[in-house]
Here is the input.
Amino acid sequence: MASAETGLLTRVNFPLYCVKLLKNNLLLVGGGGGSSNTGITNGMEVFTIVCNGERYMAKPLTKFETGRVAIMNCEIFEQGRFIFLAVGAEADLHLYKVTLKLKRPEDEGLVIDSPTREAASSFVQVRHRRRSSLEVSEDSPNEMKELLQEVEEKKTKTKKPAKRDLGESMYAEFNLVKQVQSECIANDAYLKVVRVNPTNDWLVTGGSDGYLRFWKSDDLEKIKEIQAHSKEIDDIDVSPCGTKIISICKDQTASVWKFEDGSKVCDLLWETKHNACKYHFKRGRFAVIEGHKNKSFLITIHNPLGKPKEPAYVVQWDHEDLKRKRAKALPEVLSALAVSSDGRFFAVGCMFSGSVEIFTTFNLQSVKKIENAHKSFITGLEFAPSKNDACSLTVLHDASLISISVDNQVKVHHIPKLPGVTLWWALSVSTVVLFVTFSALSYFGV
Here is the structure.
């Protein structure tokens, strides 16, 4: 059991509802206080994760304010050298190109150009983090001349530029690619979840009208739509091979669909021995079978309806027939679920205590629990890319998990590397076993 005081990456000034992490240590969080005049910011913030030799920290790159719209869901993905961000904004879907740019030494202390007008007008504006800002009027040429002379004098006096970390030398620029309406027109229409397929070719969205809608990821051209449920969709996930989609609905049901033709594979059916208590699906994630990239199984979490004292459940479903394989009872209502990219671990976040727990996927055994990791319920979990990818978070760990909450904190939790078995050690043990075996056979005259 770990202490909740460790692992703090950063704090922001708004409640957090979504978190995404790329393999280049780029971290994005989103949230806000909503449309009411609470004075709490709505928006997204981009960080880069660095290590000072003792602990990990998140260095701010850019803050993107979104006016009266809180960011409740998003998806971030790469296409070639470009990074794209899909954001649900009420009933609309926004697609942005995110460009990482290097600040020039001569730009130090100067205001960086704003992003495109489209990106600024779609919400409000982008604010780049800097050490200071300097405004000079166009009508004051003498002032500009004095400023340039001062800059030149400083350049000649400076023998070596001051060392700056990545957070101070880079910024992220948002450019709006396209904006489309994702949900049917209604007073309370809203988009609740957006996911991308493994090859980053298409996006799938779900929300208040119960439809699954598929979009090309480069220009948001609609591919097709499925009337999946009669009520709002709470969660979506795409299988590692990209052929299946799970949708979880507010009406307590969950279904699996084929992407190719939009047909239903099956409805997931699960009941407990507690006949007096009904359960509903909360979240679902596909987990790749280790060593088989195109095969996967499902992990779902279930909460009791109206009886919070009853246990919650984690359920594993078989990859072939999608039948229940095993289940594990947990003592608290669950609010979040994440699965590692290599399929080895999954994590859950708790509703009341703010605790986080990490399990192995193949047998549902707990490997680490962080009691009271946050001061309020967990709103999002995200595993760092596995050790096969280029991510410094997993260099010294078997897995690293990012957690967020409405307490405005971003934290990281690690699974230490297990001692590996070296080839020399394995050969030595094999030699000893063979020697003992042949000695025993010789002794008994076999």
In short: The chain has four helices and 29 strands. The chain has a mean pLDDT of 82.
